[in-house]
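Section 5.1 Outputs to date
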Amino acid sequence: MRNINRSAVLEYLRLVKTASRTEIADRLKISLPSIARIIEQLIKSGLVRSTGQKERSRGRGRDMLELNVAENLVIGIDLGGSHISGALVNLGGGILHGFRDSFDWGSGEENYQELAGFLQTILAQTKEQHSRLLGIAIGVPGIMDSRTGIVRLAPALAWNDFPLLQRLEQITDVPIYLENDVNLATLGEHWFGAGQGVRDLVMIAIGTGIGAGIILDGKLHRGHAEASGEIGYILPGVQFLDNQYPGFGALESVASGKGIAEQAAKKWSGLYGAQKMPEMEAANVFQAALEGQGWAVQIVAETVDYLSLALANVIVCLDPELVILGGGISGSAGMLIEPIRKRLTGVIPRLPRIEESSLNDQAAILGAVVRVFQKYTDYSVVNNG
């Protein structure tokens, strides 16, 4: 109960920004002496501080409190299909220093060395700060055991049962937390982005692959083997049965950024043969569709069909209030959302809100703040409403 009350206080301050002890006690229906003890502990721990202002009241002015966001920092790292990005961030989601490198991933060991060098670059930056570093959270594109830090399967990085946490702990004594990259992005959207105030949501990230992060009753849902949300393996039609999909799944083969580019290349070759092919990245395909080029319009329409089938399956199983579309093609989400809505209207019992990510490529970085904060404070998800 003490931990639940402590988490409730932290959550209330996170949401309202500033409050007095009396207000917190009244709103949370916890006795004022208990709140006073919790606040005293949080101030001593450096997580909460006085704003230096007083609450306006008829009687004696009461100290206003806030989370001590400026003096508590987190490192967030996001491993993408063709890049690695990271940042030094405060607890309020303020990015102090951002870093990004683009390159082609190599062997599993080469990819680890890239990550290790990137992390050391950011760690060197923290030495210039006068605030404490609470921890590091890293988003990995694949299936992993968050308890042991073993990456079970990350095709884009050539990691299979790779002891990532054990290796990283050899280069720093700062606590490190590993998480699926889409889960991390979902946490970011839930606290700082489009999912604020929503208790049940699904974020679908469409990039090199396709994955989903799931929040149910305010909590991140991992599944029995921590493989929930691997919707890239959904079969979007009977024609996908009895086939092998090494590395990436059936849905990813036709509707991920990589899949869209490959389908577009096939379409172009079928129409124009040996004629010089334009650059076939997903963004080029969407741009060509905007320009009205028939082959690209058809590819985008097929992509919408495949994604609509996937979303229908996810929605009827989980009944979320909100579905967020993000990932590498989030810039083209506007071309997907309304056509998906039209295809699903009347087809499934209830159509939730479908919105594009408000954080885009910063979602996983800000999700790192959530992950570290929750681990550092032994945070329990509570409902202050």
